[in-house]
Design brief:
flat, single chain, alpha/beta, 167 residues, 39% helix
């Protein structure tokens, strides 16, 4: 009887929360100075730029065209690499470590610049017998790594709040 009451209470609370329009607040921690900024990249249609733009918009950051009075987030360098972590007995690659490094810079209108970077590592088991499936899996992993790197960059932008206020 107690177990059924707990289930009923849980279901009722989930229904009430979902029915009232409750949602987590995004972007509440981003400094006011960085709520509106310009995103610059050498390739505006690269996968990393698109993922970063999406993550910024999810955090309620307004992206505008370049202006003198708006801070700029510039993607400087994106490095994708893989290294062999282990091999099979016959000398073929068995496991790889995928590495994504992103270097960016936040430039304020007063010409103060703050470098930020993100590094993401993942392991990937590479089976040459299922090459097509592993290729698709590898692309999904790279996409997840880009999203994680974008979230890390946004977290580091939040950490700049104290430095921005002192300059």
């Amino acid at each position: 009887m107690l177990k059924q009451l707990k289930h009923l209470l849980l279901i009722t609370s989930v229904c009430l929360i979902s029915a009232c329009g409750f949602k987590f607040q995004n972007g509440g921690l981003i400094p006011q100075e960085l709520q509106t900024l310009t995103l610059e990249s050498s390739d505006p249609y690269s996968e990393m730029t698109i993922v970063l733009r999406k993550q910024l918009q999810m955090n309620n950051v307004n992206l505008v065209d370049s202006q003198q009075t708006i801070p700029v987030l510039r993607l400087n360098k994106i490095t994708m690499d893989d290294k062999v972590a282990s091999i099979f007995k016959r000398g073929r690659e068995a496991e790889k470590v995928l590495i994504l490094e992103v270097e960016a810079m936040v430039k304020l209108p007063n010409h103060a610049s703050f470098p930020i970077s993100a590094k993401v590592n993942r392991t990937f088991f590479d089976n040459s017998r299922a090459a097509l499936a592993k290729s698709a899996e590898k692309e999904v992993i790279w996409h997840d790594m880009r999203e994680q790197a974008a979230r890390q960059l946004i977290t580091k932008m939040v950490a700049l709040q104290h430095q921005i206020q002192t300059k």
